[in-house]
Design goal:
Elements lengths: L1 H19 L2 H6 L5 H29 L5 H19 L2 H9 L3 H5 L11 H14 L4 H10 L12 H23 L1
Length: 180
Amino acid sequence: TFATVFIALYVAHGVADHWLQTDYQAATKGKRDWEGVGACATHVGVYVLAASVLLFVVDAVFGLELTVAGVLTGQAISAVTHYWADRRFTLAWLCDRLGIGGFYRLGAPREVVAYTNTDLQRVELYRRENAPSDQTWHRQMLASDHQSWDNPSLGTGAYALDQWWHIFWLFIAAIVTVIL
């Protein structure tokens, strides 16, 4: 039962964190304001709904006899810990306290300073391929002499630590779901 519940939660996690989370939620949930709170809460709500649906399906298919108390408690653990980490500054704070802040920031996008004509040409090429076609961006870039073209990626320490935080708590949630 534990293995089936954990696999269902793990699959729900992957789907909810990568397929069901909107770009807006992903970009906004870490903001330290009410907009960030709302975006993160909405993401976690969809996340818990996806996990609950999969738990219902595996319970029905395999006759696991999960209890309402077990599912609700496990999902509460998952929701609270997921929300806490997805606010981002919270997980960064914990990593700093644990001495792994450097790993958390590994691979983070950097601001790139354009000093040479070649650098400016690269910035212009990036702008044409990736930025809106208004001239405001171009004027701001030229006025500041700074523009980043170093894109975020899934290969960051923050992403790895975030995902394994969630997976650890899914493990705990699966145990609680099964034993209650």
